[in-house]
Design goal:
Blueprint (H helix, E strand, L loop, with lengths): L7 H7 L2 E6 L22 E5 H9 L3 E3 L7 H10 L5 H4 L6 H11 L4 H25 L15 H6 L3 H22 L1 H7 L2
Antiparallel strand pairs: 1-2, 1-3
Helix pairs in contact: 3-6, 5-6, 6-8, 8-9
Length: 192
């Protein structure tokens, strides 16, 4: 998870919307609220991309609450069965749940440690089924070995952006190992 200025993944994660409340009247930005008023009044709630909300938040112009994808309800669902939760549906199609959550944690200092712990725990609980699915995806049933979270296809559909990247890396690694093993060198080394 990089914060590289030129990283397309970082740009996509920063484009997720964040519900913000303006702390003061802002002239000329009424169109952000979708109305016909020319000015944005104090207390107006507007969804802004994270990259803009972050700047306004640091300058004291807006406040925000912890977004729904990181609420107590989601935390409880993660504790119950992390692999069964569709992270992709929480922050939109092709979402970056971990990246967006980390950026929110950096802004929301009073919840920072709890937020980062939730992200770490979710990743730790979802990584083994992800690795198993990547290793066994060529099987006909596409089930997660030794897991009770349903089919591997359902888990795969619920993966967020970083998990999809790790799954693709696991697939590539499995193909490379199989190619090596099927080569004459691999058969020679495996026969010992």
């Amino acid at each position: 998870m990089d914060d590289d200025y030129y990283s397309l993944n970082a740009i996509l994660a920063d484009n997720h919307k964040l519900a913000c409340t303006f702390e003061l009247d802002v002239p000329g930005l009424g169109y952000l609220e979708g109305g016909t008023e020319p000015d944005l009044p104090a207390g107006a709630k507007v969804e802004l991309p994270l990259w803009l909300a972050q700047t306004l938040f640091h300058n004291g112009l807006v406040t925000f609450t912890l977004p729904t994808p990181y609420s107590a309800r989601v935390k409880a669902a993660l504790r119950a069965s992390a692999p069964a939760l569709r992270l992709s549906s929480l922050v939109g199609a092709n979402g970056w749940w971990y990246r967006f959550g980390r950026r929110i944690a950096d802004l929301h200092e009073e919840e920072r440690d709890a937020q980062l712990a939730m992200l770490r725990e979710a990743f730790s609980n979802r990584l083994p089924p992800l690795q198993d699915l990547a290793a066994h995806h060529a099987s006909s049933d596409h089930s997660i070995p030794e897991g009770g979270a349903g089919t591997g296809e359902a888990f795969k559909e619920g993966m967020e952006g970083d998990e999809r990247e790790l799954w693709a890396i696991g697939q590539d690694s499995g193909r490379a190992v199989k190619a090596w093993y099927d080569s004459s060198w691999g058969r020679r080394r495996g026969g010992r």
